[in-house]
Amino acid sequence: MTTKSDSGDRGLSRRGFLQTGAAAAAWQAVKPAPAPQLSGSPAPFAPGGAPTRLSEHLWVYPDTCNVYAVTDRNKALLIDFGSGRMLELASYIGVSGVDWVLHTHHHRDQAQGDHKAVSSRVPVAVPSHERHLFEDAENFWRNRRINHLYAVRNDFFTLTRNVPVAASLADYDTFRWGPYEFFVLPTPGHTIGSITLIAGIDGKTTAFSGDLMYGPGKVQTLHDLQYTYAGMEGVDFSVYSLTRLLERKPELVCPSHGAPLLNPAPGMEELIRKLSDWYDYWRGPTMITRNRPIAVSPHLIAHHLPTASFYAIISEAGKALLLDYGSASNTSFLIFKDWPDIHGRMRFLEHSIDTLRSEFGVKSIDVAMPSHVHDDHINGFPHLVRHHNAKIWCFENMRDILEKPNGRNIGCLLPEPIRVDRTFRHRETVKWEEFDLTVVHSPGHTEFQMAMFASIDGARVAFTGDAFFNTPARPDDGLRHNLIYRNDVYSDSHMQSLRNILEFEPNIVAPGHGSPFLLNRTDVLRFEKRLEQQQAHFETLLADPDVNFGLDPSWVHIYPYQMVILPGQSRPAEVRIRNHRPTTMQLKITLVVPDGWRCVPEVRQLSVEGKSVGAAAFEVSIPTNWPVRLERVALAADVVADDKYLGQIAEAVVDLKTIG
Ligand SMILES: [Zn+2]
Ligand SMILES: [Zn+2]
Ligand SMILES: [Zn+2]
């Protein structure tokens, strides 16, 4: 971008600013701004220049990033903030104050002056997936791994100090201010949590796109597009984001670096093409925009390319029932799975629904059902509820996990609660549209899994989640399964699951990962044998003859596992016991809390019958004057079972503040 250093208007050169002659002509109607009366020359480490008017209610100021000002009468809203100098230039753009600062992403060049906004009582709104990198920036720095650096993503461009955040800009939501509606389009790429804000301004659909693109066919950096070691994730995401933005037909694109772009489509298409070529040069896995669901039969659609496969059963009326609906691609799942950041949340990007509508006649997403509670299978569910009015149905034991995910510390949970509309009992059959759906409990991979059966287009289909996979480690293994102790798995769980599935004699299996396949008897027999072998291994390896004590890390656990308690508050906490013995167990339990906290009662005694569960209830309270030194503390349960002192064998965490 060019700036006239000491010319009369001290603003951006209009010629350098606008991309084409036609664009320049379109802007002729806008009067040049009067010369700014700035108080003296800018201080060292502050930008010079003055805001340029793009149209009646839109200005841009070239700070450490472009700061855009949208005006409504005598107030302005800023998009990104740079050093914060725009606060001093408010009168220059004819407003008396700034109502909001909205950020497209968390980089320091966008936000390094935010403390000025905060001290001037100007609220700051940030992308919800980057909120912790503003308000908890200092904690980010305490925990960011630097040695053994493989997580190379440029979150090193995070602010050095915490910035209080007034609001989150949630994906696919709308932020309203005055007459303007800013639609929040998730546009990961330059950063993983980046957003583009789209609003109608002075008659033009205007997109504030952060650093998604610099100019026609250009990005400012490639290094920001690498998240993992030698990865290409940001390139894949940028192509996705540009494609989605293009579909919304912006007439003016306002980037954080580079010049605002009128008639942006050709330049965006050029960038999509060039980034796709760059991706293909490295021969990465399939890009999100190339993933497409396929028809298995007229009423059954499958998509096996995202990490977790999902399925759509489509009724004659055009209603769809989705079995699972997770990440848009393997890449978009793995970057969260392998990332060490404690606040990082798996970001959901809408995918495939446009294809279901345009190619497969889907008119609405009526119901979504999880095969099991794992995040890779369900992280699109909150979006389906919020933006597609889908109902959520599930097997009965999943309800508590979905609605209160903070309750348990088990594998792969999505932290966002999902409200359940109806549950199914073991072996219950329900009619949905013209289909009979039967659900059974299918433990093993996790206790919180179902298998669902339906006759679709003449085939007897079993939706089996992660009960087993058609990818044997060795050819003679038949089907393959996995074992994750953290998921509440017991010695006979997998076998129980297989029996429940075989009882319905399915011929097509629609698994949770990979493509649908025909179930063959030889493979099933081999698989059954392997499950028997697994049980034999448990018995030879484990010391306790009641082997489940050696498989179940949560046989004693505190519920809920994650609590938020502030000084002056109390919360109920239960210690839950799964007695894997055939005989009654006598327990004596106390909660170990920080000095100064109260726990009532001090000790609980209870007996839990053989092969059953029991619970001891406590109330934990924090005195009003307790000095918060740490934001998270751990509690433990000290346990005596059948006169044997086992010690602090269960734990939970208490957060004394919340993020986001
Ligand atoms: Zn940036
Ligand atoms: Zn799973
Ligand atoms: Zn899975």
Describe the structure.
The protein is an alpha+beta fold and 660 residues long. Helices cover 20% and strands 30% of the residues. It contains 16 helices and 35 strands. Strands 1-2-3-4-5-6-7 form a seven-stranded mixed β-sheet. It has a seven-stranded mixed β-sheet with strand order 14-15-16-17-18-19-20, covered by helices on one side. A six-stranded mixed β-sheet has the order 8-9-10-11-12-13. Mean pLDDT is 92; it is low at 1-33. The protein binds zinc ion (3 copies). Residues 105, 107, 110, 190, 211 line the site of one zinc ion. One zinc ion binds next to loops.
Please describe the structure with a list of short key phrases separated by commas or semicolons.
660 residues; alpha+beta; 7-stranded mixed beta sheet; 20% helix; globular; disordered N terminus; binds zinc ion
Describe the SSE topology.
Blueprint: H1 14-17, H2 21-27, E1 52-55, E2 58-62, E3 66-72, E4 75-79, E5 97-102, H3 108-111, H4 114-119, E6 124-127, H5 132-135, H6 137-143, E7 167-169, E8 174-177, E9 180-186, E10 195-201, E11 204-210, H7 233-247, E12 252-255, E13 261-262, H8 265-281, E14 294-297, E15 300-303, E16 310-314, E17 319-323, H9 330-337, H10 353-360, E18 364-369, H11 375-378, H12 381-388, E19 391-395, H13 399-403, E20 422-424, E21 428-432, E22 435-441, E23 450-456, E24 459-465, H14 493-502, E25 508-511, E26 517-518, H15 521-541, H16 548-551, E27 556-559, E28 562-564, E29 570-579, E30 585-592, E31 598-600, E32 603-608, E33 612-621, E34 632-641, E35 644-655
Parallel strand pairs: 4-5, 5-6, 6-7, 11-12, 17-18, 18-19, 19-20, 24-25, 28-35
Antiparallel strand pairs: 1-2, 2-3, 3-4, 8-9, 9-10, 10-11, 12-13, 14-15, 15-16, 16-17, 21-22, 22-23, 23-24, 25-26, 27-29, 29-33, 30-32, 30-34, 31-33, 34-35
This protein binds zinc ion (3 copies).
One zinc ion binds at residues 372, 374, 412, 445, 466.
